[in-house]
Amino acid sequence: MPRELQRGHKAKISDLTAGTDLYVGVQVSGPGLSFDISCFGLDERELLSDDRYFIFFNQPTSPEESLQLLGAQAGDTESFRVTLERIPAQVSRLSFTASLDGAGQMSQAGPGYIRIVAGGEEVARYAFDGSEFTTERAVMLGDFYRKDGVWRFAAIGQGFDGGLDALLKNFGGEVAEEEPQAAPQGAPGFAPPGGGAPQQPAPGFAPPPGPAAQQSSPAPQAPQAPQAPQAPQPSAPQPQPASGRPQPQPQVPDVHGAPTVAVPTAPFGGEPRPPQPPPPPQAQQYAPPTDNPYAPQPPQPPQPTQPQFPGQQAPSAQQGPPAQQLSNPFAPQQGGFGAQAPQAPQAPHIPQGPAAGVGAALGKFHEVPTGQRWTLQNPSLVRADLGIDGQSVLAKQGSMVLYQGKVDFSYKGAGFTGRVVGNATGQEMQLMRCSGRGQVFFAENAAHVHPVELQGDAICVSAENVLAFDESLQHEVRRIEGHGIPGGALFTMQFTGTGTVIVKTQGTPVVLPVTPTTFADAQAVVAWSAAAQVIVSSQVRLHRNAYPGHSGETVNLQFRGAPGNFIVVQPYEV
């Protein structure tokens, strides 16, 4: 005989059955009512932290198939297969719910139940009816939960007024708003099938016998006749001259080639002139460096081997080095996207004569000293001058590409927090201390580098995007947890005080203001203002579709904060 449970009763699964591969059946119905039966896989905080464990009509299985939606059978409106031993450790509670799809209230429902079946034999049942509810449109029927390593079952019977979306929000999920797609005429909605042959059980799993033995499989819907493709419209033929010869096409000048003489080389009846040598290049364009070899070079004509970096200013003789603009390194600058129309590529010109030489070829790549603490050499290389203020520099291990002077490199431990991070995920922040007197150049994988100067304010930077920073800055490692984030968590470093942080990005980043609807991919976010609040957001779409699946973009970071907060995102996912 099955064990009859009342609302609020609890029991250990081991007291009910020795099996762990269980069948859970739910029966609920009412005149003119349609129900959605779902299962929520919750964490220890009773929140849906991973939407892949929300089992419903659009997502019938969990990743490891420990939870499976089986459909209507054996007299049950909906049924599930639950394999307790395969449920991951982060899922500590399974909540089975029923919600109305359409108009109606739970008080209109007839007698129903949730039952547990092991090996084909019913071992426990919690029965209910509509008299236990009033205006509710959804109800939590029963929960499997793990306590002290032992699975137990509790009869809940708690109702909600808002339906399935209210249940989802109660468990910490978020309903993604979208326009429902137009369904073809005659497409059936979600409803239990009629009676028929019993569904064949999975190996080693025995659902209970019941009236489903007389059910029949639903007749397949006849496919719609495909529409005949439209014939392509032929283009009108070009008119031909009366002689029948094709009309010649106008000649298009070759703008990419060398200059071509387009006039006769000799007057009519005269002797042909010898070909003229090409004009020599202008000496001032390729002159060797002046007395100050580190002065900025005059602007050069565009060359194919030196493309202009988007988002950076073109070099000019009147402008100072880029390192002097540290106040807003991510702001769009003149000469970036859309500043000038793209120019046609020109053939490279090799200097000859007095303008030739190694100095002319390499002059534009000379080091740019400014006497300041940090100096950008190019979009991917930054130089730190040690000994100016006596402060050391902390940098990511392996990021030094060149140094000059008497510089000492030593290991910098990440502290207790860093060791905890490293032991948990292998993402420990490995730092080195650079001290002494000299210049150290930092880069990594040709990533773009951006000096961010702090003047008593604070910023949070993803640990993967920190290249180097002044040791005078206070810094701490913070952890943002959430299932669905690669590695289980996102580790950031918060910097406060006075100094400079060198942030690296893949490509040119974009800076956006934080609004109530600002979401970012955890793998693409680079930095954000320290005053902004970060929340792991999990979006679940409740609209029915014919092709259930996972988009890969359901877990994001939501940013909230007062006006003035910002977020920095790179066009790349780590």
Largest sheet: 12 strands, antiparallel
Weakly predicted, low-confidence segments: 193-197, 212-220, 234-246, 260-270, 282-296, 302-327, 332-342, 416-427
User: What structural class should be given to the helix and strand makeup?
Assistant: mainly beta
**Quaternary organization:** single chain
Q: Averaging pLDDT over every residue, what do you get?
A: 73
**DSSP, total strands:** 28
Helix content: under 10%
Q: Indicate the overall shape.
A: elongated
Count of discrete alpha- or pi-helical segments spanning 4 or more residues: 4
Rg calculated over all Cα atoms? 35 Å
| Proportion of strand residues | 25-35%
- Terminal CA distance: 56 Å
Chart the SSEs and their pairings.
Blueprint: E1 3-5, E2 10-12, H1 13-16, E3 21-27, E4 35-42, E5 54-55, E6 67-69, E7 78-83, E8 93-100, E9 112-118, E10 121-128, E11 138-147, E12 150-160, H2 164-170, E13 174-175, H3 358-362, E14 374-378, E15 381-386, E16 393-396, E17 400-412, H4 415-425, E18 431-442, E19 448-462, E20 466-470, E21 474-481, E22 489-505, E23 510-513, E24 518-520, E25 525-529, E26 533-540, E27 555-560, E28 566-569
Pfam family, one: AIM24
Protein name: TerD domain-containing protein
Domain TerD: 1-171
